[in-house]
Write a structure and sequence with these properties.
Layout: H1 2-20, E1 27-32, H2 40-56, E2 61-66, H3 77-82, E3 88-92, H4 101-108, H5 116-129, H6 132-141, E4 155-158, H7 165-168, E5 172-175, H8 178-186, E6 190-193, H9 199-204, E7 210-213, H10 217-220, E8 229-232, E9 241-246, H11 248-252, H12 256-290, E10 294-297, H13 300-315, H14 317-323, H15 331-350, H16 355-365
Parallel strand pairs: 1-2, 1-3, 5-6, 5-7, 8-10
Antiparallel strand pairs: 3-9, 4-7, 4-8
Helix pairs in contact: 2-12, 5-12, 5-15, 8-13, 12-16
Length: about 375
């Protein structure tokens, strides 16, 4: 009997030692992403994120991906995360402008910054460290914010040839909302808000004549099957995204060390997605031309419309913040966005555009200063 008690004590002691060495019970996080596996957000973001989290936690934390909307669609993701259907997921904040008014307003600033990597850094730092109302909206919505990626300036992929603004008049164009709707209207077309995951069907059924989205969609969504003409309009970087949105209870259940790893992995992944979109955009445009799709820079007439549009967008930001988004004092947010785009533009130049260097710099300058014991709690 004494011998058995000794064995039990030894086993218990070994268990305690293992626990103190980090041998916590393995935890699997269920994640919903409505996008397909080949999409840059998945291939360059979610998959590397899941891999890094598993490796850096020694398997104590794993992320199981449910792709293609198998659990939650793009518009249901925020609520599903809030309600605990999943532990985390991909939320396009632009689908919920009323609930995330401050982030929606940041997205209205599309004319401030067009490089996806730079805008990813500026937007994440702004929301995470300099926009308390932004974080309050995420908390009220039941979504923990962990970072944003931006996409390169979108292009117009049309089933009809567009040689002049006159050719665009009357067309129905799938748009990303907000500032992009305004540009579509400026060229005399009609904006139609369709999720990116549904744009192929919308074009194939004639619901829209064109799609205003990243050029990568030509390849990742197969839009080159129907596209005859691509306009490189260059009107700003979309940034209304919470890439790895966490359920508050799931976030609180992580250790401080795990939350740090998640924030760093999310930061790396967001830069990876932005850079991936840039590379895929370039490849998709080249491959599209090889398939007979015309890719063209906009004409002088279009440039004139774009210049007027950009000027109106910038001049109207304060009024839009107050009247459309209900923000009493939008000027400081505009100033912060501009300053951060300038800051990360300079850093981007210092590192010669190297994305790995940008990742390291952002983690050192921003993520390292986050108090993970209180952030998102």
């Amino acid at each position: 009997m004494n011998y058995m008690k000794q064995l039990a004590a030894i086993a218990l002691g070994a268990g305690l030692v293992a626990g103190s060495a980090g041998g916590l019970a393995a935890k699997e996080l269920k994640a919903s992403v409505h996008l397909p596996p080949k999409n840059n957000t998945v291939a360059d973001g979610w998959e590397p994120f899941a891999k890094q989290v598993k490796e850096r936690t020694n398997g104590e934390l794993t992320v199981k991906l449910f792709l293609g909307g198998s659990l939650l669609g793009p518009k249901a993701a925020s609520e599903g995360i809030r309600d605990g259907v999943v532990d985390l997921g991909y939320v396009i904040v632009g689908y919920h402008p009323a609930e995330f008014a401050h982030t929606a307003f940041i997205n209205d600033m599309a004319a401030i910054g067009t490089d996806a990597v730079i805008v990813s850094a500026a937007t994440t730092e702004l929301i995470m460290t300099q926009c308390a109302p932004c974080l309050a909206e995420y908390k009220a919505r039941g979504n923990v914010y962990t970072g944003t990626y931006a996409v390169p300036p979108m292009v117009i992929m049309s089933t009809k040839m567009i040689d002049s603004p006159e050719d665009a008049k009357g067309l129905k164009i799938r748009s990303a909302g907000s500032a992009w709707d305004n540009f579509v209207s400026a060229i005399g077309a009609t904006p139609v808000n369709v999720p990116s995951s549904e744009q192929y069907e919308a074009m194939s059924r004639g619901v829209v004549d064109a799609a205003f989205h990243v050029a990568a969609s030509l390849k990742t969504y197969g839009l080159w099957d129907m596209t005859k003409d691509v306009l490189l309009v260059d009107v700003g970087a979309y940034r209304a995204i919470n890439t790895f949105a966490f359920n508050p209870a799931s976030w609180a259940d992580l250790t401080d060390a795990q939350r740090r790893i998640v924030l760093e992995a999310a930061s790396d992944a967001n830069f990876g997605i932005a850079d991936g979109y840039i590379r895929t955009d370039q490849a998709a445009l080249k491959e599209s031309e090889a398939k007979g799709v015309r890719v063209q820079k906009i004409s002088e007439a279009f440039k004139s419309i774009r210049a007027e549009y950009v000027a109106r967008e910038k001049a109207g930001l304060v009024a839009k913040g107050k009247e459309t988004r209900g923000i009493a004092d939008p000027e400081p947010l505009i100033a912060k966005m501009s300053a951060l785009v300038d800051k990360w533009t300079k850093i981007h130049e210092e590192v010669g555009g190297d994305v790995e260097a940008m990742k390291a710099r952002f983690k050192a300058d921003v993520i390292a200063k986050i108090d993970v014991s209180t952030y998102g709690m």
